[in-house]
Protein 1
Amino acid sequence: MRPYLLMAVLYLSLAAVTALAAALQIIDVIPFFSGLRWLRVHIITLGGLTQLAFGVLPTLAARRHGEGQPRTRWDIWLTLNLGLLILMIGIPLVNNVLIITGGSLVFTAAGLLVYDLVRLWRSQPARPIQQVDEQPEVRPFYVAAVSFLLVGILAGTGLWFGWGPALGIAAPIEVHVHSNLWGFTALLLAGLITQLYPALTGTSVAWKKLVAPSFWGMAIGATGLVAGPWMEVNALTVGGLVAHSLATAALLANWATPIKRKLTPKSPGLLHILLAYVWFFFPVVVAPLIVFRMGETANEISGSGGPILIYGWILPILYALLPYFLQRWLRPDQPAKAGGTWASLLLIQAGSIVFWVSLFVTTGQSTLRAAAYGLWLASLVPVLYQLWGSLKRLAEESEGSPVITSAPKQRDRENVDLKKQVLNE
Ligand code: HEM
């Protein structure tokens, strides 16, 4: 888990650089350079999110199975990161050899991860399953998520090589985006938030029995969203979007209800997670316009609306989860909480609102978009400060200057909380 978390922090730091570059490019302070658009999206998705997935899924799936921490698969880590670095050079240069090599390495790493997760799932549990069975089953979310990632990588790597027509894909870019966002990202985040919910909030989701139907709704919906543009059948896309959205709304109600009933206090981390879903539902509101090609606004949204999903939905959830896992790694003997601050919450939401407004206006669009990237960049600062602060403390400790973290009595209390947290996960 650790090497992946370090890489995720590194890529999140690079996300700040690409947000700054985007803001400066929009207002013509720096010239256009090829590949920034790709980097801006994939530093967060392939860099931050995928590293997090590869780092935590084996551990969480093993814990759900009653097993201890699995050993780090350095072969998978190397394959994924080598592939990613090669893509980060190859895609901006549009170099075929580098793109195929990078895409194949990332595909291989994802294939090995699916294999590991399935193997773990099918093996005998290490301890009687009743002990870990109190929480809803989330492993199907993980296996389905990484399987959609495989389809997404296949379509993404082939975008320049005509694999689309060869595989009978009518709209390869849509297949790539739908498979990665509604398939991989949505299922991954749904599984993670559901599994971590008791540890993050101290209470369980409102209706445990609703988790399994939500999984099926999301998985079937994502399949429709991939099959629709693949076979050029709009009914499948729309049906998929409806099923996926209803299932996600059910899951969201499952997470939000205990907070609404004040069973757990509101924190910036939890609000980062819940408000992110306002922006996730953004395409649902505009999808009918896009599918039926209604007017200028719809074209503008389908062409430029992508950043809302990346910065409005995925990034704030990373703000909440990445510091959580980092705390669990750095201080395994203390309870951890979701990351993010009130400042990061305010700034990231302001950025998304300003970007949203920019999609509907004709004058001042560039200024608004540059301001949105500026606000998103500013929201990264407190989170990166938290993350780098944690890593700095780790470095200080490993260099021999012990850091005193809590008084003995408080530590005893924390140990009780920690036991609860680990059992909850
Ligand atoms: C090996 C892995 C991947 C490759 C080779 C790849 C490749 C590409 C390419 C070539 C584009 C088109 C860029 C453009 O039109 O400017 C694209 C767009 C996109 N990809 Fe990926 N991708 C990969 C993984 C992912 C993942 C894991 C995600 C999300 C979790 C993702 C999300 C997106 C999105 C949202 C877009 C649309 C960007 C926009 O509208 O500007 N990709 N990808």
Note: The pocket of protoporphyrin IX containing FE is lined by residues 37-38, 41-42, 45-46, 49-50, 87, 91, 103, 106, 152-153, 156-157, 159, 176-177, 180-181, 184-185, 306 (CB under 6 Å).
Protein 2
Amino acid sequence: MRIGIVGYQGTGKSTVFELLTGVKPDPSKHHTGQVGVTVVPDERFDRLVEMYAPKKETPAKIELLDTPGISRGEQAGNAQRLGVIREATALAQVVGGFLGGNAVGEVEDFLTDLVLADLQVVTNRIERLKKDVTKPVPNRAELQQELDALLPIAARLEEGSTLHDMEFDDAQEKATRSFSLLSRKRQLVLLNTADSTIDADVIGRIEALGCPVVAGPFGLELEVNQLPEDERAIFAEEMGLGESSRARVIQAIFQLTDYITFYTCDEKEVHAWLLRRGSDAVEAAGAIHSDLARGFIRAEVMSTADLLRLGSEKEVKAAGLHRTEGKDYIVQDGDEIVIRFNV
Ligand SMILES: Nc1nc2c(ncn2[C@@H]2O[C@H](COP(=O)(O)OP(=O)(O)OP(=O)(O)O)[C@@H](O)[C@H]2O)c(=O)[nH]1
Ligand SMILES: [Mg+2]
């Protein structure tokens, strides 16, 4: 899973990237974007580690992509600049609240830039299709169907709307699969404020645009992190800083993506795995290793809620809460799973 850290130039994207990943942005990677990895804070995982005391612990991680800022001045080039985030699972827009501009307007403008980038891609394809359907080609009916699927999408984008609440039918999904439409990606706003003062009205107005918001003085927090350990607490108190935003931001990003966490646990390793919500037991097996999916026999499942409440696997089994599930079982958030397989 890769999250694009996006936004206009100089809003604090690289600052947030460093705060979340601990990785210093490398100026030589500025144009292409830089990838860093961050651990997902997870209390269930911490408690499972305590319970199993394994030799190895592997928490869930997400990848963050720090991207070059897009331009307010020359919007014409933005569609191309946004190309680096086509592969992102979801977007986190950093808004430079500390700069004193209009934060709500900045989110609206950014959404418009995404819409324009999508419109360019969709329109190019439509123009091509319009020409091709007039030719005596063998797949003319197919091309016509693709054209019919794209026209309502273009119409929506021309109105200036994102595609967040447009339902796509199968033909539309198929016609747009290779585009990775930007204005369809889920988007979170990270409002980078000057200090710990947060304006609830501004947050409400951004949320009304369809983007959940996490606000915080990310720049200040990074500065505090970079102080010698013994000075951090004093400085944080002086600046009125509370708990670091890092955990809050990553939790919010994770919630945005519609993934769940499942676990594999024994005395060798406690491992947290991310999986798209709605995936079945074979897909969970495949996330661990392709052999486990190929040779899948069954999944033995218990919920970590039961496990942590009752204190051991033995107690869960005694309470009759340990289940055997087949291929079609839809994995639930918090499941602890053992895959039985044969290759
Ligand atoms: N005062 C203050 N300055 C900040 C804050 N966040 C970032 N800055 C400063 O703003 C400048 C730009 O920050 P970056 O994190 O590099 O911004 P960016 O969005 O990555 O910039 P581009 O990649 O060039 O688009 C730097 O000088 C930062 O030190 C903040 O919260 N408060
Ligand atoms: Mg940057």
Note: The longest strand covers residues 269-276.
